Amino acid sequence: MKRLRWPSWMPIDPYILLLLATVGLAALLPARGTGADVASGASTAAIAFLFFLYGARLSTREALDGLRHWRLHLTVLACTFVLFPLLGLAARGLVPVLLNQPLYQGLLFLTLVPSTIQSSIAFTSIARGNVPAAICAGSFSSLVGIVITPLLAAGLLGNSGGGFSADSLMKIVLQLLVPFLAGQVLRRWIGDFVVRHKKMLGLVDRGSILLVVYTAFSEGMTQGIWHQVSPARLAGLLGAEAVLLAVMLALTWHGARALGFGREDRIAIQFAGSKKSLAAGLPMASVLFGAHASLAVLPLMLFHQMQLMVCAVIAKRRARDPQATPPPSSAHLVQGQPQDRALR
User: Fold this and answer.
1) In this structure, what DSSP letter does residue 328 have?
2) Residue 200 burial by CB count (10 A; 0-12/13-18/19+): exposed, middle or buried?
3) Are 173 and 288 in contact (CB under 8 A)?
4) Is the Cα dihedral 326, 327, 331, 337 positive or negative?
5) Taking the alpha carbons of 289, 153, 53, 276 in that order, is the dihedral positive or negative?
6) H or E element, residue 26
7) Torsion over CA: 171, 175, 178, 180 (sign)
8) Do residues 219 and 293 touch, judged by C-beta distance below 8 A?
9) How far apart are CA 10 and CA 310, in angstroms?
10) DSSP labels for 279-311?
11) What span, in angstroms and rounded, lies between the C-alpha atoms of 217 and 308?
12) What is the pLDDT of residues 194-244, one digit of tens each?
């Protein structure tokens, strides 16, 4: 299999444009009344189906094979669920100078979301890093995040995040964890079908995400919360996210060196440990934040595009490093993984 390639230029991902168009549609024609109820029900079903597909896609055997590199995976998990949240808590000092409280809650929430899968693999491959490790690290992070992200959100955001309660956690279990586990159980029978039709199913889960975004932003419009966001606040949010990304890229690279990891492992740690998953974060925010989900996911959507553009540049520079070696022959492990590069 040929090494994954990223475009030589830095485009705005087409799917991001679709997401922005969906936000615009919700602003102009928000779902109201019966339409809102229908959209909410469809969104709930789409979220469950989305996580069912995640479970059906994740290869349990590959995940177990990756356990032998446990130090690397623990490092990525620590970056994703410890360092990121600590920086998110530190950003509380930006309120109210740069951020208002709803935008800060969204920024803090994005620091709690699991890492990406496909884009971590793609960038690691381009930079000639440890591709199998990136696959396993991203998969572990996504799996752990289904449980850890809601618990962290309940503990760090509390009732300010839209009413976290035992009922909210039960919704997470029923809408996210149960479908995911069902997908894992049925993978032995439907796994081959999912692999063969990954492009078609990729369109399905992308459409599911668009429906979630439309529902969330429609609720935000009907609740009249967009008056809380000004151009100055958005500029402050972008600046805070740029600093957050820069700090995590530096910590993952130099911290991995201090821990004694080799170059290829450091590349996998940097790309898997510095990014956040839009695909996992959007459905979770919809469940956890309810009517406040629109402002909660805005920081994540902006951060997602920023990380893609910045990491594309870094990956190409790493590939030109004189110490770079050809990517590992086991890059075939990428086969069977979801190809929804924009979502991860």
Assistant:
1) P
2) exposed
3) no
4) negative
5) positive
6) helix 14-28
7) negative
8) yes
9) 9
10) HHHHHHHHHHHGGGHHHHHHHHHHHHHHHHHHH
11) 23
12) 878 877 777 777 788 788 888 877 877 776 666 667 888 989 999 999 999
